[in-house]
Design brief:
Elements: E1 6-14, H1 19-37, E2 42-50, E3 53-61, H2 68-82, E4 85-86, E5 89-90, E6 95-102, H3 105-111, E7 125-132, H4 141-158, E8 167-180, E9 183-196, H5 202-216, E10 228-230, H6 240-243, E11 246-247, H7 252-255, H8 276-293, E12 299-306, E13 315-319, H9 329-339, H10 344-350, H11 386-392
Parallel strand pairs: 3-6, 9-10
Antiparallel strand pairs: 1-8, 2-3, 2-11, 4-5, 7-12, 8-9, 12-13
């Protein structure tokens, strides 16, 4: 996004009940099941969901205690937790097929460590990380508030809040903010589409959601009433996988920075941390966030690239967007490499990624989340590099 002039920028979010997010949740449920049984399991799980049907497919390598029957049961529990017990998609009655099979030996030999060979990247690719000063979590504001609206709807729906009675799990939000000289100053429009029971009309849902959205935004930021769009088609009763097929990995911009930053193209959910699509994107966010949190820049983009089977990154690129405070980006790269081992094994160990921590990432964004000290989750959101970065640059 530009740092001068006046412009509008929009980002969207989708709820955990959106069909693609149901698929992401199930894929990460499979991943966590394997990592709980063996932290060095290999998993690449894809999920398809449609009317009362779920299909699991992909490649795994892990203990035999993780059986198809176990994964099918866990899939049902995930669907129940999201809130689906509808005629067209029910945790009780959906037909669930498990077609997971063994990982390719050709891929395994390139990734596995052995002899004098270090662990290689699980695939080739480019990964990006981003941070900025627009929100307390150092995330782009349009995406931050789009997520927040849906998270509050989810929390109140699951708590049985009577003020939101009749709203169902599938929902989407979209927030457009006005920027002046690179800083957000208010919302010009907000869109919320939510699945609902037949008895609720569009006007009633709009009245329900107005105070929730207004409270989610900073004071004075709420858009005009005629720019608050709720269920613009007028009706959204048939939703979730019954209304639209869902697939793992189709919401990669929702998962990252809402379009405010480049994206390497790889999806995250269902992939174990040897897949640099996931682990390297996480470490890129970790590094970018620490650079901004240390006060070295107001905005930071990082790109790292890898080749399958090769342990060291092929390139590391920093862009401070002209906001670096007398920061030599070459020195910054060197300092970062000294602080964090960017080989796949180093990334996994630094961020403690070989654990069943991924289900919470499957909805409302992988970044900008609050680390849980007790569960040791979202480690890539920690800012523990800040003291070392400040010292290296005399701050």
């Amino acid at each position: 996004m530009r740092d001068t002039g006046e412009y509008l920028f929009t980002s969207e979010s989708v709820s955990e009940g959106h069909p693609d997010k149901v698929a992401d949740r199930i894929s990460d449920t499979v991943l966590d099941a394997y990592l709980a049984a063996d932290p060095y399991s290999r998993v690449a799980c894809e999920t398809l969901v449609t009317t009362n049907r779920v299909v699991l497919a992909g490649e795994t390598r892990g203990p035999e205690t993780v059986t198809p029957e176990m994964l099918i049961h866990l899939t049902r529990m995930a669907i129940r937790d999201i809130g689906y017990d509808q005629e067209g998609f029910s945790w009780k009655h959906a037909d669930i097929a498990c077609h997971l099979h063994s990982q390719s030996v050709d891929i395994a030999q390139g990734v596995d460590a052995g002899g004098n060979k270090d662990e290689g990247a699980g695939d080739q690719g480019i990964m990006f990380g981003y941070a900025c000063r627009e929100t307390p979590d150092l995330m782009p504001a349009p995406l931050y508030y789009a997520h927040l609206i849906l998270q509050r709807m989810r929390d109140r729906r699951k708590a049985g809040d009577a003020a939101l009675a009749g709203l169902l799990p599938d929902a989407k939000s979209q927030v457009t903010l006005r920027y002046i000289d690179g800083k957000p100053v208010g919302a010009t429009s907000v869109v919320v589409s939510t699945q609902h029971e037949e008895s609720l009309g569009q006007a009633a849902i709009k009245q329900m959601l107005w105070p929730l959205v207004q409270a989610a935004l900073p004071a004075g930021w709420m858009c005009p009433e005629n720019e608050f769009y709720v269920n613009p088609t007028g009706k959204f009763v048939i939703g979730g996988p019954d209304g639209d097929c869902g697939l793992t990995g189709r919401k990669i911009i929702v998962d990252t920075y809402g379009g405010a930053s480049p994206h390497g193209g790889g999806a995250f959910s269902g992939k174990d941390p040897t897949k640099v699509d996931r682990s390297a994107a996480y470490v890129c966010r970790y590094l970018a966030k620490n650079v901004v949190a240390a006060g070295l820049a107001d905005k930071c983009t990082i790109q790292i690239s890898y080749a399958i089977g090769v342990s060291h990154p092929l390139s590391v690129y920093f862009d401070l967007h002209g906001t670096g405070r007398d920061i030599d980006e070459v020195k910054l790269e060197k300092t970062i490499r000294e602080l964090v081992d960017l080989r796949p094994r180093g990334v996994r160990e630094h961020l403690r990624m070989n654990r069943p921590i991924y289900v919470p990432t499957s909805a409302y964004g992988h970044f900008g989340r609050t680390p849980d000290a007790a569960l040791d989750t979202f480690t890539w959101e920690q800012t523990d590099l800040v003291p070392a970065l400040k010292s290296a640059f005399g701050r």
